[in-house]
Amino acid sequence: MVQVFIQPSYGTPEARRSWTHTLARAVPFRDAGLGSADSARLDALHLSGRARFWGATAKHDRRMDSVTAGDVVLLTGRKHVLAVGEVGHAFRDPAFARHLWRPDPAKCLWSNVYSLRKYWPVRIPYEEIWALPGFNAGDNFMGLRFLAPEKAAVVLAHIAPDLRVPPSGDDETCDVVV
């Protein structure tokens, strides 16, 4: 079964800058010093040499080890799910993460990175998610959270009708069906 996780990604000025750099548009990844296995996997998934990326800090290493191609991430901020992404390749490369986001060295450094092979900009208020079975009103989805399979199924069933499945291709940005 597809794993679904919720990841805050727009709540702070630094996160919003990172969103602008690696989620709002696809970025080049060739010639970024990636290891050969990660470079080959990204090349196979993103033929243009560009992809959207997000990630997580080292404290999430164990959970991020379970992320695989096809998993779904809900990217959140400002009390909304702002985008839905389908994971392409997940890997650990602190140097590449620093290359992507250039964090303040005094702050947490990201080590886990994942590409998105599909990306849907959405605007789903938290209240809509709270109304689903198994969710609680007032939950602001703080921190990286992996959903239990039953919650994942409920979320996917709820958001799937709102997402247009794109034609196969590289770095698909999909429109929201209205």
TrEMBL record:
It comes from the Bacteria. This is MacB-like periplasmic core domain-containing protein. It comes from Lentzea pudingi.
